[in-house]
TrEMBL record:
This is peptidoglycan glycosyltransferase. GO terms for cellular component: outer membrane-bounded periplasmic space. It comes from Thalassolituus pacificus. Pathway: Cell wall biogenesis; peptidoglycan biosynthesis. In the N-terminal section; belongs to the glycosyltransferase 51 family. The lineage of its organism: Bacteria, Pseudomonadati, Pseudomonadota, Gammaproteobacteria, Oceanospirillales. Residues 82-248 form the Glycosyl transferase family domain.
Length: 805
């Protein structure tokens, strides 16, 4: 009896461990035990697999970073931290042919088994036993994914571990997530993994565009990636591909016609290489988007390739250490279509690694249009306003023309198209440098001014720093109704109205665009033909010392900017905007937009005939006060008079009132005459006198002084005149006794008349000052035609031209 408790205990234990007789209960119990084992496996052997739901985000150290254009064509690629090329793809981004080929060749029952396929394992065991070799592994897609992240030995134990890992995968992830892992991590030969990278590097196309034959090739490649690489062993790859196609036909996945058509397609693969388009922009975007594996840009790969190829050839015409940059902007979408930051990224001798699209450089004359635009916006001038291309002297700034000659009276349009320096300084002085700097900053283009950073008149001629990207952004306002939009480099970003800034009104933008649409100098010289060839609004610029050569062009569709120079800031004598950058600009427009359109004229822009010198409407100007007529574009019917210059115009009103005696002679209030008659006289700006026909000069339009006046009227002061130099004078250089180089002649500069001290200019360059009775000595530095100009304290001028031989 003493054994009964022990036996009962054993009996109860046997009952506890015995499987229930009810089949449903037994199944639930077995399932619970199976789940317990899997959870134990998770605890003992954690599953180290990337999160399939974040494949397209991709960590930088797990996926290669691919920079693509707006059609998702590769521009530049960066391998992962281990040097592996793996481009992330989702299930929806792969060709349906590839999915069918992979499933029917690798794992037909993938969506039905729990991670392992017992029938496939038994078949593989039987085939291997009969052959005495490895014929088939019996691995499912889940098992292959498990082996990719948890490698094992080729043994029964290793196979069991693979099966356990596959069950773990199925426990944690959906079928589509496991399939996505396979798509991204399957070995494809060398350091290439995943169908995304393989299709890009071998076939130069995205996985979504794979044909039936290409899909079969990509599906079989992981079976033996080194042996079946299509770039090295095309015949092996062809035979393996055809096996996949044969199996798809046998399973009824494809028709006989599809099969025969696919067999005709040859195996043609590229040697894997990584693209190198827009390398500098790609490098910067990669830095800004380190967490993204796929960076979608707004660029056009075809256009980018053409520009880079063209620029690499064009730069060969330039000396060593020179580079170039080009930026192409779509005005409507504000998207950058091409970005060449240097002439040749691979050429270190030309500083190919330096991005000159973003570099701060002196913009030269390229900002002149915006000075005129602000003056039009503020009602100071219109397109045909009379401006002065004459010497202007300031104690802290001495502007001069690029040609070192003066043109006298010019219209605002003519001054802008000829890129004259003196007129734009006159306009900037009226606008004020502070207003100009603030307008640029408000538009998102902060003008970096050296020294104390204060706005000054040198800004008109490039006395500061701006980048090519900022210039293109500003110029695009001419096609966007005066609005400046941020440049867009990433695809998918919608432009926000809040991101735009007004530089000036739509009307001013249209007028300024018209002023810049001058005939192309590379076309026919016939003015009749040139007048019809005004489809591009363009402007050139050259910085001080020939360090930067610029050209920017605008059509309704595109804005293009071009820069040439040396990134290290060394001067490039003889290279300037019109010579170096402008021909390239026109070549680009001919390639991108052969027949540009024209912007529609705004309703509040009108054309008016105006008269010089007063600048008023011809209809409201007396005939004797209208010496020249010009067609002017007016904004909101604003018709400002000729822009005054307080430095030289003094306090005289225009038109000027003067008096004559009963004899018709000039008098003033101090003259003792019985009667006076008032007359109106339209005045030209005094500094322009010596560029006018003799009949239009002030003193030739006034009558003689009445002898009854004790002192001559102020209008009759003796005019300023250069003495000792006649127009056409020829000065010859002297030779040294030893027969060496010529000694250029020296000349004495003296003037009489006028009022106050004199400032002297030779070829537009200020060479010195003298008092009323003083003489200044000057030795010429070059031969050829020379222009000598003197200006007194009232702004009155006289000039002579001579020849130095």
């Amino acid at each position: 009896m003493s054994n009964i408790p022990a036996n009962r205990a054993a009996f109860n234990a046997a009952r506890f461990f015995r499987l229930p007789q009810n089949r449903a209960t037994r199944f639930v119990l077995l399932l619970a035990v199976f789940c317990l084992l899997l959870k134990s496996a998770d605890w003992l052997w954690p599953l180290a697999v990337p999160d399939p739901q974040r494949q397209t985000e991709g960590a930088q150290n797990d996926f290669a970073q691919l920079v693509v254009d707006h059609h998702e064509r590769p521009l530049r690629a960066f391998a992962d931290s281990n040097g592996v090329w793996r481009y992330p793809v989702e299930l929806s981004e792969v060709s349906p042919f590839y999915k069918e080929a992979l499933l029917n060749y690798e794992d037909r029952w993938f969506y039905y088994h729990p991670g392992i396929n017992p029938f496939a394992l038994l078949r593989a065991t039987w085939q291997n036993w009969r052959c005495g070799c490895v014929v088939s592994g019996g691995s499912t897609i889940s098992m292959q994914v498990a082996r990719r992240f948890h490698p094992h030995s080729r043994s029964i134990g290793g196979k069991l571990e693979q099966a356990l890992r596959a069950l773990q995968l199925e426990w944690h992830y959906s079928k589509d997530e496991i399939f996505t892992l396979y798509l991204n991590y399957a070995p494809m030969g060398g350091v290439i993994e995943g169908v995304g990278a393989a299709s890009r590097l071998y076939l130069d196309k995205p996985a979504l565009d794979l044909s039936l034959a290409e899909s079969a090739l990509m599906a079989v490649l992981p079976q033996a990636p080194s042996r079946l690489r299509p770039d090295r062993y095309p015949q092996r790859a062809l035979n393996a591909r055809n096996k996949v196609l044969q199996r798809m036909l046998e399973f009824g996945v494809i028709t006989q016609a599809d099969y025969q058509q696919a067999l005709l397609e040859p195996v043609l693969a590229y040697q894997p290489h990584t693209p190198q388009l827009a390398p500098l922009l790609a490098r910067e975007l990669r830095r800004q988007n380190a967490d993204k594996s796929l960076i979608k840009t707004t660029l056009d790969a075809d256009l980018q390739y053409e520009i880079e190829d063209y620029l690499a050839q064009e730069i060969q015409r330039f000396p060593p250490s020179h580079s170039a940059a080009i930026l192409v902007l779509d005005n409507a979408s504000h998207e950058v279509r091409a970005y060449a930051g240097s002439a040749d990224f691979a050429d270190d001798s030309r500083f190919g690694h330096v991005d000159m699209v973003q570099a701060q450089r002196s913009p030269g004359s390229t900002l002149k249009p915006f000075i005129y635009g602000l003056a039009i916006e503020d009602g100071l001038i219109h397109s045909a306003s009379l401006l002065r291309d004459v010497p202007r002297y300031f104690t802290d700034y001495q502007p001069e023309n690029f040609t070192r000659h003066f043109s006298g009276p010019v219209s605002a349009t003519e001054a802008l198209r000829q890129s004259l320096n003196l007129p734009v300084v006159q306009v900037l002085e009226a606008v004020t440098p502070e207003r100009f700097a603030a307008a640029l900053a408000n538009a998102g283009a902060r003008y970096r001014i050296p020294g104390d950073g204060k706005a000054n008149l040198s800004m008109a001629l490039g006395g500061g720093g701006l980048s090519l990207a900022q210039l293109v952004q500003l110029y695009s306002a001419l096609a966007n109704g005066g609005q400046v939009w941020p440049l867009r480099y990433l695809n998918g970003e919608s432009p926000s109205v809040a991101g735009s800034r007004w530089l000036f009104s739509t009307e001013t933008a249209w007028v300024l665009n018209d002023m810049l649409r001058s005939p192309r100098p590379d076309r026919a010289r016939s003015y009749a033909l040139q007048d019809n060839d005004r489809s591009i609004a363009w402007k050139t610029g050259t910085s001080y010392g020939f360090r930067d050569a610029w050209a920017v062009g605008v059509t309704p569709a595109y804005t293009i900017g071009v820069w040439f120079g040396r990134p290290d800031g060394t001067p490039s004598p003889g290279h300037y905007g019109a010579l170096s950058a402008l021909p390239v600009l026109f070549q680009l427009f001919d390639r991108i937009e052969h027949k540009p359109g024209v912007l529609p004229q705004p309703e509040q822009v009108s054309q008016e005939t105006i008269c010089w010198p007063l600048g008023k409407s011809a209809a409201e100007t007396a005939a004797d006060q209208c010496f020249q007529t010009h067609k002017a574009w007016l904004v909101r019917s604003q018709l400002p008079p000729t822009l005054r210059d307080e430095r030289s115009d003094g306090l005289w009103r225009n038109p000027l009132t003067y008096w004559t005696s009963e004899r018709g002679l000039l008098v003033d209030s101090s003259c003792d005459v019985p009667a006076r008659t008032a007359h109106q006289l339209a005045l030209w700006p005094r500094p322009l006198e010596h560029w006018l026909p003799a009949s239009q000069r002030l003193r030739n339009r006034l009558p003689a002084v009445d002898p009854r006046c004790s002192e001559p009227p102020a209008l009759a002061l003796e005019p300023l005149q250069i003495t000792g130099i006649q127009d056409g004078l020829i000065l010859r250089s002297s030779r040294t006794r030893a027969g060496g180089s010529a000694a250029l002649p020296e000349i004495s500069l003296h003037a009489q008349g006028g009022l106050g001290p004199r400032d002297w200019y030779v070829n537009g360059l200020h060479v010195g000052s003298s008092g009323e009775a003083e003489t200044l000595s000057y030795r010429f530095s070059v031969t050829g035609e020379q222009e000598v100009v003197v200006m007194d304290a009232q702004g009155e001028l006289d000039r002579r031209t001579l020849q130095v031989e």
